[in-house]
Design goal:
Length: 422
C-alpha cells in the first residue's frame, strides 16, 4: 500500500502518511536536490510514527553524511586535479597509468595507503599517536557542516555559525601539537612548534578581517551574512562585500591568511621537507599519513567556503536574471574558482622562509586587517556611494603603500650579490 504513496510523493502529490496536509511541494527540484536524502529519511521516520527526537536525529545524521560524502569525493577529485594542474604547468603528463587519463589514481592511492604498514616509533605515545590524525580531520568536517551551500541547503543552521567555525578551527593547533609530541622524536616536535606558531599568527588577521563583515552585516549567522549581500548595484553589479573598498582589502587579507592556515604553498612551512624533514608528520605512515592530507584538503574546502560566504556572496548569483539556476551550483562554481587559484599559486610561487612568514603576518597583515574595521564603519556611515569610496580609499592606500615601501627598503637588502661556483 505504501509503494504508490512513495511514487506519488516523488511527483509532488502524496497521501498524508501521518502528516497534516495531503499536498505538498515537489520533493525533487533543482534547488532542493542536495536535501533529498535528508527529506526522505524524515518522511520515512514520520511514516512509521517515530518520535520527534528520532526524526530530528535522523535528519541531522543524514545531512552530515551528505556533506561528508560530497567533500570526500571532492577530496579524491582534487588530489587528481591538483597533480594534473601542476604537471601541466611544469610541462609533464601527471598521473596517467591508473584508468583512462589517470582518473582512477585516487582509488589507487587510497588502496596503497590502506595496505601500507603502520609504523609506530618505539618511544611514541601509542594512543596519542593514533588520536592526532583523527583530530586533524574532525574540525574540518565540523566546520563544513555550518556553511550555507544554498538557499535550502544549510546542514546545521547555527545562530553563531561564524563563531562555531573559528572555535572548532582552533582544535587543529591542538592536533598538530599532539602529533609532534606523541611521535617521540625531536624533528616532529620542532615541526609542530613551527606549524603552531604559523597557525596562531595567521588566525589573527583571518578573524579580524572576518569581523569587519560581521560589523556591516549585523549578524553572526552565515546565512544572514549571505542574505546581506543580496541584490545588485547599478542594476548589474553584485552587492558582494569584495566589491567594496574595505571588503576588497579584507578579502585579500583573508585569502592570504587562508593560504597559511591551510598550509598551502608558499606558506607550507609545516611540511618543509628540505628544512625539517616532514614536520609533525615525519613519524607517520600508511593511512594515518593519509588522514593528515585529508584534513588539509577538507580544511581547504572549509576555509574557501567561509571566504565565499563572507566576501563573494555565498550562493548569490553573479548577474541579475540568473536566479533560475540552483543556488548551490553558484556556490560550488565559486568554490571551484577559488580552489583553482590556490593551485595556481602553488604552481607559481616558491616557499618562503619562516622569518619572512612571521614578519609578514605581524608587520603587514595584522595592521592592515585592523585598519579595515574603522574603514568599514566609515563606509557604513558615508552612504556606501562615491563619497564612501573616496573616504575609504585614502586611509587604506596610504598604509599599504607605507608598508610596501618599508618591506622593500628596510627589510630587504639594498644590493644583492650572486656568487657562482668557479
Amino acid at each position: 500500500m505504501r509503494l504508490p504513496a512513495w511514487i506519488a510523493l516523488l511527483v509532488g502529490a502524496f497521501p498524508t502518511l501521518g502528516l497534516a496536509q495531503t499536498v505538498q511541494q515537489p520533493l525533487v527540484t533543482g534547488e532542493s536536490l542536495p536535501r533529498l536524502p535528508q527529506r526522505l529519511v524524515e518522511m520515512g521516520l514520520q511514516a512509521v510514527k517515530a518520535p520527534d527526537w528520532l526524526v530530528a536525529l535522523g535528519s541531522f545524521v543524514t545531512a552530515a553524511a551528505v556533506v561528508v560524502a560530497v567533500f570526500l569525493t571532492a577530496f579524491a577529485l582534487l588530489s587528481l586535479i591538483e597533480r594534473k594542474t601542476l604537471a601541466r604547468v611544469q610541462n609533464r603528463l601527471g598521473p596517467n597509468r591508473a584508468g583512462y587519463f589517470g582518473i582512477l589514481q585516487p582509488v589507487a592511492d587510497g588502496i596503497k595507503m590502506l595496505t601500507k604498514e603502520d609504523i609506530v616509533p618505539t618511544k611514541a605515545e601509542w594512543f596519542l599517536h593514533l588520536l592526532a590524525p583523527i583530530l586533524i580531520v574532525i574540525p574540518s568536517i565540523l566546520a563544513l557542516g555550518v556553511i550555507p551551500y544554498g538557499r535550502e541547503w544549510v546542514p546545521v543552521p547555527l545562530e553563531l555559525g561564524i563563531v562555531f567555525f573559528f572555535a572548532v578551527g582552533t582544535m587543529t593547533e591542538l592536533a598538530v601539537f599532539i602529533a609532534g609530541w606523541a611521535s617521540g622524536s625531536k624533528f616532529p616536535m620542532l615541526g609542530a612548534m613551527r606549524a603552531i606558531s604559523q597557525m596562531i599568527s595567521y588566525e589573527l588577521p583571518l578573524m579580524i578581517s572576518a569581523l569587519s563583515v560581521v560589523m556591516l552585516s549585523g549578524t553572526l549567522t552565515l546565512t544572514g551574512i549571505v542574505n546581506a549581500q543580496a541584490g545588485f548595484h547599478l542594476g548589474f553589479l553584485p552587492a558582494w562585500n569584495i566589491l567594496t573598498p574595505w571588503g576588497l582589502v579584507a578579502g585579500i587579507v583573508f585569502f592570504i591568511a587562508a593560504i597559511a592556515e591551510s598550509n598551502r604553498c608558499p606558506f607550507d612551512l609545516p611540511e618543509g621537507e628540505s628544512e625539517i624533514v616532514a614536520g609533525h608528520m615525519t613519524e607517520y605512515s600508511g593511512f594515518k599519513y593519509a588522514l593528515f592530507f585529508m584534513g588539509e584538503y577538507l580544511g581547504l574546502f572549509a576555509i574557501s567556503g567561509l571566504g565565499i560566504t563572507l566576501f563573494l556572496g555565498g550562493w548569490q548569483a553573479p548577474l541579475p536574471g540568473l536566479d533560475w539556476v540552483p543556488s548551490w551550483i553558484w556556490f560550488f562554481g565559486k568554490l571551484a574558482v577559488v580552489i583553482f587559484v590556490f593551485l595556481w599559486i602553488r604552481a607559481t610561487f616558491p616557499r618562503v622562509r619562516i622569518d619572512q612568514l612571521m614578519r609578514f603576518a605581524w608587520l603587514c597583515l595584522i595592521p592592515v586587517s585592523l585598519l579595515t574595521l574603522p574603514v568599514a564603519a566609515i563606509w557604513h556611515y558615508a552612504g556606501q556611494g562615491a563619497l564612501g569610496w573616496l573616504l575609504c580609499a585614502v586611509p587604506l592606500l596610504i598604509p599599504c603603500i607605507l608598508i610596501t615601501v618599508f618591506f622593500n627598503r628596510r627589510l630587504a637588502p639594498a644590493t644583492r650579490r650572486y656568487h657562482f661556483a668557479e
